[in-house]
Design brief:
Mean pLDDT of chain B: 89
Structural class of chain B: mainly beta
Largest sheet of chain A: 5 strands, antiparallel
Shape of chain B: globular
Low-confidence stretches of chain B: 1-22, 100-105
Strand content of chain A: over 45%
Helix content of chain A: under 10%
CATH topology of the largest domain in chain B: Immunoglobulin-like
Number of domains of chain B: 3
Largest sheet of chain B: 7 strands, mixed
Strand content of chain B: 35-45%
CATH superfamily of the largest domain in chain B: Cupredoxins -  blue copper proteins
Oligomer: heterodimer
Radius of gyration of chain B: 21 Å
Number of helices of chain A: 2
Number of helices of chain B: 4
Shape of chain A: globular
Chain lengths: ~400, ~525
């Protein structure tokens, strides 16, 4: 394709994606950005999930905080996503974890009420660094970062959950479970010692595929680098790891065999750390929250080869060091095309949700923080995890 | 270092120890009182013999004290200053009277190499002593911290060492150094000053001046639990918010010679003396126990954790408002905030006590100077951290470039092997988002470059700060000259970050110097 035609095509696709998002077509109802408030004390409004209605222009308005009744911890691992979203058939549920009290709460999106609540076993605990969530239509998996266990829950009607069992896990050097992602019958986990592992979840309970290994960047790097969060391509061909590092490091593993292969590491020096990553709906871009670099990066992704290439990085987002100190979880502005940019959680005493818009021109892109950004998150003393409802299609 | 990580350390290594009170520590000074110098013990006829009993107790506000108790003729004192001359003999017996029933749940394997002292596992109740900055051999009964363990309930352990005749006059200090547990004991106050006499022979500027010895310590309520810390000046709390401050007495206009040890866990201290809010010129005499080649005047003296500064202060005239102050210091995005605070108010009193330095004798002491020595090797090292969440870094490394990053293990092989006679230039980078304090045992190093640029003052130090990486541009670095020509350096010893939690978590390695 000629370069100008390719560019025109991309622009058109981006425009169409924007129109679709603005029209609310993707959601079939009110689209939300949801935030796990992760309150560790009752001094705010009580712990809950804050639902932000997404306007046609992408701006957010806090619609309601749904109280969960327990307590979070106000911090923890970046890669442990504390929000799970299910939008299957007529079920519209948002699940959120509360690490201090050990609850996982299901919220019925149509009514914005709590549908159910479950806890793991007596020994499951995530009070130091949180409880991460990953799920499919049938099961929700919870990573308990203190007990180093994966709790398996079955998804119940009415956004309820039923605890099934625990699976003890650990990295190669005893590392603590951190990020998780699910695709089909595969669950992939990262550990804080730089190792990664996949599990077969055909029967619900995770069974190791025997592929536990150090990531390439961990093994080879002279910097302290290890995988944190995970995303998986729609066809289940590649798992992508966002690494914690002193630069941007993203690793890709071919998982088409049903197991992890040796990761290929990509390093960029445009910013610091890349603990949270998320693919765009069309999988042409990988969004990266530069956790300690105060910016957002987009890398071009070839979903056929699994290769990443240089993209663009935003300027430092507003309020860094004064209102917030880390960037963490990501959500998409649009559920189609290249995603139109991302919302990103700002962790700090004055937490917020930043909105960073994307523009693509041929093989280049740019990211700019929206004028109205950030949107205050008054219910959270330390925001780490956000998500879209309805979620991305894969 | 975000302090939640301390809690994680405790969970990972220790569980939750609930300390039980064993032998009591002496009461510490009340807030708002006049700061006295530490009790001092001087060598007699070339020998200083003393016995310390390390004890632990919990005070009325919940702080756990670890104290070196010394029984003086009329009272029991805590962490006295040891005063010796070059060439003197130090005979120090250390008796461990810590007892904690939960300690069996908290241990680290000891070195598989030769043991020294009581042996056994390294626990919260184990101890030993490091003579920080002293150029004495890294041998059992001298300044070994790798193999020496003193366990509770045993008769005690004897340190016998000869202070080298070439040891520079200055301020050194002593503290426990059991890997994995150093922070706990230093947090409790187990640290004291050691002075090698004769500064007036090298720097006659101090002859006849009133000498003051200040040891600044830092205490957390529980070292690993998030919360504010307190600084203390000679054990008097300096950070009583809105409360009374320690009082340093000076005669109006008087010059005093202050010898200040930063015995904190991790506080980088830009020290100043303020008069009516303005930093005053301070005549810097020595750093880390080593007299400067030439004195210089500064209004701020940055002293990293474990560093020492000796300087001349001139009191203002009557009527002025004066204070001893540490300014704020940024340790980077993942470091702890080091806040500014007044360490003491300076009260002008024409009847203030004075304890004067001897008059200058005219003797001159010469020391080996590495400036023009032939360099036998160059090495590159770097600090780095793993950082996965809001609770701060979870792994701390110091690595020789080209080697695999790993945390210190007591039975590890040395990562650097050299020999007596070597003179090496080391470049130490900081690739972390937190400032670190590089320290090496047994020797001082000469500072050659900072961030690749030659420095004007080629000071000899044993601890130096390396600022955090800002996220772009080159890493901050220092280039230092390591002088292993002295045969007393032969043996195996350690280099590490002197933020004590980092050291305890393994930001440390061994170096072997072959005879």
């Amino acid at each position: 394709m000629k370069r100008w035609l390719h560019s025109l095509f991309i622009r058109a696709a981006t425009l169409i994606a924007g129109v679709l998002a603005v029209s609310g077509v993707a959601a079939g109802g009110t689209p939300y950005v949801v935030a796990n408030d992760d309150q560790s004390t009752g001094v705010f409004s009580g712990d809950g999930v804050s639902f932000y209605a997404v306007a046609g222009n992408g701006l957010l308005t806090l619609q309601k905080q749904v109280a969960m009744g327990g307590l979070g911890i106000g911090g923890g691992f970046f890669g442990a996503n504390r929000i799970g979203v299910l939008d299957s058939g007529k079920r519209g549920c948002v699940y959120a974890s509360e690490a201090a009290t050990g609850d996982i709460v299901g919220i019925v999106v149509s009514t914005l009420t709590v549908g159910g609540k479950a806890t793991g076993s007596d020994t499951d605990a995530g009070t130091s660094n949180g409880i991460g969530l990953a799920m499919n239509d049938q099961y929700l998996y919870a990573s308990f970062t203190d007990s180093n266990t994966i709790g398996t829950f079955s998804v119940q009607p009415g956004c309820d959950l039923a605890f099934l069992n625990d699976t003890a896990v650990a990295g190669l050097q005893g590392g603590t479970i951190n990020g998780m992602a699910v695709h089909g019958n595969l669950l992939i986990a990262t550990y804080t010692d730089g190792s990664i592992e996949s599990f077969d979840i055909t029967g619900g309970t995770p069974l190791s595929n025997g592929d536990k290994q150090y990531s390439t960047a961990t093994r080879n790097s002279q910097d302290a680098t290890y995988p944190n969060s995970i995303d998986i391509t729609s066809d289940g061909h590649f798992a992508i790891f966002g690494d914690t590092s002193t630069s941007i490091v993203v690793e890709v593993s071919d998982i088409s065999s049903g197991k992890l292969s040796k990761t290929v590491a990509y390093k960029y020096t445009a910013s610091i750390s890349s603990s949270n990553v998320m693919l765009s709906p069309d999988e042409t871009l990988l969004y990266v929250a530069n956790t300690q670099g105060d910016s957002v990066t987009a890398l071009f992704f070839d979903k056929t080869t699994g290769k990443l290439s240089r993209g663009c990085t935003s300027n430092p987002l507003r309020g860094v060091s004064t209102n917030w100190s880390y960037l963490a979880g990501l959500a998409l502005i649009s559920q189609t095309g290249a995603g139109g940019g991302v919302y990103v959680a700002e962790f700090g005493s004055t937490s917020g949700i930043a909105m960073v818009r994307l523009a693509v021109s041929g093989a280049t892109c740019s990211l700019h923080e929206a004028t109205a950004s950030p949107f205050a998150e008054p219910n959270s003393p330390g925001l780490l995890s956000i998500g879209n409802f309805p979620p991305r299609s894969f | 270092m975000h302090s939640v990580s301390r809690w994680l350390l405790a969970i990972a290594v220790c569980g939750f120890p609930f300390l039980r009170v064993a032998a009591q520590c002496p009461a510490r000074p009340s807030a708002g009182t006049v700061v006295a110098d530490p009790f001092s013990i001087s060598s007699q006829n070339g020998v200083l013999s003393a016995q310390f009993v390390l004890a632990r107790s919990v005070d009325g506000t919940g702080y756990t004290h670890y104290c070196y108790k010394y029984t003086a003729p009329s009272k029991v004192v805590e962490a006295p200053t040891l005063r010796l001359n070059p060439g003197d003999q130090l005979d120090l017996t250390v008796v461990n009277r810590i007892k904690d029933d939960d300690a069996t749940t908290m241990s680290m394997p000891a070195s598989a190499a030769t043991t020294c002292g009581d042996g056994g596992a390294m626990t919260l109740d184990s101890t030993n002593v490091h003579f920080h900055g002293m150029n004495v051999p890294p041998k059992c009964h001298q300044d070994d911290v790798i193999n020496t363990l003193i366990q509770p309930g045993t008769p005690g352990f004897k340190y016998n060492m000869k202070i080298p005749s070439t040891e520079r006059p200055g301020l050194y200090w002593y503290h426990p150094h059991v890997h994995g547990f150093t922070e706990f004991q230093v947090n409790g106050g187990a640290a004291g000053a050691l002075i090698v006499e004769g500064m007036e022979k090298v720097r006659p500027e101090v002859a006849g001046l009133t000498e003051r010895v200040f040891v600044i310590r830092q205490q957390y309520l529980v070292p690993w639990i998030p919360g504010p810390y307190q600084l203390t000046l000679n054990y008097q709390v300096a950070q009583a918010i809105g409360g009374a401050k320690p009082i340093i007495q000076m005669k109006p206009g008087e010059k005093q010679f202050w010898r200040v040890a930063n015995a904190t866990l991790q506080d980088f201290m830009p020290l100043e003396v303020l008069v009516n809010g303005t930093p005053q010129p301070l005549e810097l005499i020595a750093l880390d126990g080593y007299p400067l080649a030439q004195t210089r005047t500064q209004t701020t003296i940055l002293v990293p954790p474990a560093g020492r500064a000796e300087f001349i202060v001139q009191a203002p005239p009557s009527g002025a408002s004066a204070s001893f102050f540490t300014d704020a210091y940024s340790t980077g995005p993942t470091g702890n905030p080091d806040i500014q605070q007044t360490l003491a108010t300076i009260a002008l009193n024409k009847n203030a006590d004075s304890s004067q330095m001897p008059k200058a004798s005219g003797d001159e002491i010469r020391f080996p100077d590495p400036t023009d020595a032939a360099v036998t090797a160059e090495r590159n090292l770097f600090f780095s951290e793993e950082f996965g969440g809001t609770n701060g870094p979870i792994q701390f490394y110091i690595t020789v470039d080209g080697q695999k990053q790993k945390v210190f293990e007591p039975d590890e092989k040395p990562v650097i092997v050299t020999k007596v006679g070597a003179v090496e230039d080391w470049t130490v980078e900081n690739r972390a988002l937190e400032t670190h304090a590089f320290h090496i045992h047994q020797i001082h190093f000469q500072v050659l470059e900072v961030d690749g640029k030659p420095v004007t003052n080629k000071d000899l130090r044993d601890t130096i700060e390396i600022p955090f990486w800002e996220g772009k541009g080159p890493f901050h670095s220092v280039k230092v000259r390591m002088d292993f020509r002295d045969p007393t350096t032969a043996g195996t010893f350690v280099f590490h970050c002197h933020i004590l939690l980092h050291e305890d978590l393994g930001m440390m390695h061994k170096i072997e110097v072959d005879p």
